[in-house]
């Protein structure tokens, strides 16, 4: 086969590198023809005897790296750390050539088109950081265990892809720690560079340990020295994997030249998998003039999958490239969408692609959600929660002695449901329920027992009182209800959404519960879910292209819902039909985030969103979608925020990343003032306007009271306990009633403080981080915790007066209306708890 020489602009400073690609099959060392060899710019192919000759520019990088594209059916032997030895560092001669740069490949002992691989991202190894060398090693051991335990209908797990941000500051020491950590993996690890792996001061910092390097050859030097080439390709099965550096690399002409030639040589008959650090459709994505040539190139080939990280969030987009799906995986260090840390098991099986998300450090205990404890009416169903990663938990069953075992059916990744025979229930008698679950037919049963007593009282139907139409009930986000829902509460119904529910909180109006739904594994179940409050029966599920991670808002006969990447949708309350939709118009900044929840007031919806320049706010008519105004300029930074604008007294208040609070004129959108209160990048809470103050819960478990006139801080409070959340994100919005602030923190505490001075009155401690925002109802507040419980806490002294264990994170904020508290949880279910003492 004739070699192909692709010359670049570096021709006048070239060293010719030559060698062979050899077949290490029993020591024969025969040459392999047609294998692509490259330095990341020029590309050639081996001759019939496996030989190649490659021009390499001496000044293109500080250290030359030559690599091969490992063909399907072949393996690169492991290096000293067990990772694929597909590249070599080459010391270039000043003139002439460098010979004998050989590569050895081995036949794959069991080649297959059906296989699995792991993708993870943003591991951020740092000696004194959130994820240390030992931390990553532990995570890889968990992955090893999962691979061994899970069913392998899709074939063996062949490798791990780490999609960028291997380190935090790109120091040689951190790269060494990363390389030491990945030796814990039982399967090869392919690494991809991210922005934190570039030794430059880049937007999104500050990075005090990094150098002020600006040239690309400088910023990538440590990565190339320690890890290898910054872009490359390899094949497995029917797939051709292309690894790209798309944070700074899209501006480098040599990457696009290399990719063009790589696909010309290697893509025929292959499905293409593109692996990069930054997603191709978010505000952090480089400008359209840089991404467009790549997206146009992708469209010419059979691209099926794009994998990314960077955003520390889960997201699936089936609309970016025709015929392909983009799958973003959250961080294994700390998350920004407040989801659990985890990874994905990507599976190619009989021509089908699946990308299930698997949690790290998940609690795998069984919890009998219902029936348990004192039950007012005879239960008709059993609900059990236990996290079972995809591929595990093949069978579950229950019994109410002396009756025999009955099967449970799985719903989602956690919930198991079964019907109860009414004849098995004896009112006013304590009974036992046994639950058993096993991960596969060969494993022992895991068992849990609970007791329950049915009081046999008349059935109480959930009824709506004053509507709870948006996050934290009103436009001020006071979290203060007008109905007194008194415990004890009885679980009236449970309804699964089909997806997951994290920080979206229920809105209750028109005798209906409305809530936003995520889908961690695909884009099938994302949308808005509507459930009849009285019966728990679904009314409609309006599916959307992207997640509805935020809370919805109801105004009259429309439900307002923001998709995570836009648009803002107005749906009919009766059937979920989309009445209008609104997409931001920023031609030079086409990608947006809408993790902010909409706020409605006086016929207007106020929606905040992120584009590359920062955060903008728009005011629209709720009935028509007609724009009333858009803020005059961008606010704060462009990282995602999860709050909701607060509206009060002619002003709008919005908080953005790094604790930046802004006040806007409600009539025009003009910015009145901005004030920075610091903390980390993640902002999960909303501002609250009450008692002549704006209250803001900042990253790091700090509560600040701000003067609404000028943004000056009046007082602040720091929660004293250690955070139970990686990164110490503070996501809970405080509630206010009768001059008292009720704030919840990631250290697991709920604290009451005087609104005038911030003096603490009492503390209540839970066993998990609290991301849920308290809701005030009468003499108590209701709040969820990541320890799995929803609680009623007495407002006078902080005592817990009622709780129910759901066996999963309760990061969603409850709504209290009429005689009912509505809650939602990470298991994807909506729960209605009813009080026997509520309104008739």
- What's the pLDDT, averaged over the residues? 92
* CA radius of gyration: 28 Å
Total strands: the figure is: 63
Strand-residue fraction? Answer: 35-45%
Secondary-structure class: mainly beta
pLDDT < 50 stretches? 1-10, 201-207
**Major pleated sheet:** 6 strands, mixed
Query: In whole angstroms, how far apart are the ends?
Result: 86 Å
Describe this structure in words.
The chain is mostly beta strands and 840 residues long. It is built from six helices and 63 strands. The strands form 14 sheets. Strands 1, 2, 5, 7, 9 and 10 form a six-stranded mixed beta sheet that branches. Strands 11, 12, 13, 20, 21 and 22 form a six-stranded mixed beta sheet that branches. It has a six-stranded mixed beta sheet with strand order 14-15-16-17-19-18, covered by helices on one side. Residues 1-10 and 201-207 have low confidence and may be disordered.
Q: Helices, strands, pairings?
A:
Blueprint: E1 14-23, E2 30-31, E3 36-38, E4 43-45, E5 51-57, E6 64-68, E7 74-75, E8 87-90, E9 97-98, E10 103-107, E11 115-120, H1 133-149, E12 157-163, H2 172-181, E13 189-192, H3 216-219, H4 221-226, E14 232-236, E15 239-243, H5 253-266, E16 271-275, H6 288-299, E17 303-308, E18 315-317, E19 325-328, E20 342-349, E21 352-354, E22 357-359, E23 367-370, E24 373-375, E25 381-385, E26 395-399, E27 406-407, E28 409-411, E29 415-419, E30 430-438, E31 446-454, E32 489-496, E33 507-509, E34 512-517, E35 527-532, E36 538-543, E37 553-555, E38 558-562, E39 568-572, E40 578-582, E41 599-601, E42 604-611, E43 614-621, E44 627-630, E45 646-648, E46 651-656, E47 660-665, E48 671-676, E49 688-690, E50 693-698, E51 702-706, E52 713-718, E53 735-737, E54 740-744, E55 749-754, E56 760-765, E57 775-777, E58 780-784, E59 789-794, E60 800-805, E61 815-817, E62 820-824, E63 829-835
